[in-house]
């Protein structure tokens, strides 16, 4: 649905915000781009609707090369791409429904249909009862719901989210992410969101890319990344902290995804190899509709025991990292 192919963007002739970036977002998925401030996330997002023009490379949305468009054709393409902002960007002297009507004007909807369509969008985000409230009378979460409704006014195929939850409290963040997830599913929306928070990726994304200093470090479906040995995204999704030093013990970090998370693998290890296993830490979440997580084990005995345990677990389909040996 969205293909970003070898995109480079440089500012002031020296600062390379994007450096040969390639990302593919499948139709109907929620794709997160995660990275710290200055990584190039916002610049990347803005190339998708051509608010930023790359120095090289192409951006294609639903088979249309956006980077090649100008004038009216570019405006028409932008109408198929909704945008949700971090700080809502609502017009303060217009009510919630009027903010959406204003967006409908921009895409040429007839005056007679604007009110009904705007109310329909507010109902979609659960805010029809606050249609006549001004932004200053709404909570942060409600203002963001208006922002999402406004972004959906043009019936887009793609929704771009620019740190849409970073100004919200944790409970409101969960509600907004659940809303985005539901809209993606019910409307068939393809969602590309940027964030610096791994919890956002964990809660809502199907796939993700890690961006650092303008370059993609790794990317892919979350469940595939969880299964990938040494994945930094998987490690950050399930942090276990520093491994303790335990004389006489080796330490293994295990990564589970999908069916592996539901099997009694650790019990099988203890039974089949006769090892007295200690669990030092564990975290399990639901990722892309399936259970996934990490567990840290302490394995007593000689180094060879640790290697046998790691080999056994790998044969069960579990990702294994030997953190330390006795």
UniProtKB/TrEMBL annotation:
<dbReference type="InterPro" id="IPR045865">
    <property type="entry name" value="ACT-like_dom_sf"/>
</dbReference>
<dbReference type="InterPro" id="IPR041701">
    <property type="entry name" value="MetN_ABC"/>
</dbReference>
<comment type="similarity">
    <text>Belongs to the ABC transporter superfamily.</text>
</comment>
<comment type="function">
    <text>Part of the ABC transporter FtsEX involved in cellular division. Has ATPase activity.</text>
</comment>
<dbReference type="InterPro" id="IPR050086">
    <property type="entry name" value="MetN_ABC_transporter-like"/>
</dbReference>
<dbReference type="Pfam" id="PF00005">
    <property type="entry name" value="ABC_tran"/>
</dbReference>
<keyword id="KW-1003">Cell membrane</keyword>
<dbReference type="Pfam" id="PF09383">
    <property type="entry name" value="NIL"/>
</dbReference>
<keyword id="KW-0029">Amino-acid transport</keyword>
<dbReference type="InterPro" id="IPR027417">
    <property type="entry name" value="P-loop_NTPase"/>
</dbReference>
<dbReference type="GO" id="GO:0005524">
    <property type="term" value="F:ATP binding"/>
</dbReference>
<keyword id="KW-0067">ATP-binding</keyword>
<dbReference type="InterPro" id="IPR018449">
    <property type="entry name" value="NIL_domain"/>
</dbReference>
<comment type="subunit">
    <text>Homodimer. Forms a membrane-associated complex with FtsX.</text>
</comment>
<dbReference type="InterPro" id="IPR003593">
    <property type="entry name" value="AAA+_ATPase"/>
</dbReference>
<keyword id="KW-0547">Nucleotide-binding</keyword>
<dbReference type="InterPro" id="IPR003439">
    <property type="entry name" value="ABC_transporter-like_ATP-bd"/>
</dbReference>
<keyword id="KW-1278">Translocase</keyword>
<keyword id="KW-0472">Membrane</keyword>
<dbReference type="InterPro" id="IPR017871">
    <property type="entry name" value="ABC_transporter-like_CS"/>
</dbReference>
<feature type="domain" description="ABC transporter">
    <location>
        <begin position="2"/>
        <end position="238"/>
    </location>
</feature>
<keyword id="KW-0813">Transport</keyword>
<dbReference type="GO" id="GO:0016887">
    <property type="term" value="F:ATP hydrolysis activity"/>
</dbReference>
<dbReference type="GO" id="GO:0006865">
    <property type="term" value="P:amino acid transport"/>
</dbReference>
<dbReference type="GO" id="GO:0005886">
    <property type="term" value="C:plasma membrane"/>
</dbReference>
<protein>
    <submittedName>
        <fullName>D-methionine transport system ATP-binding protein</fullName>
    </submittedName>
</protein>
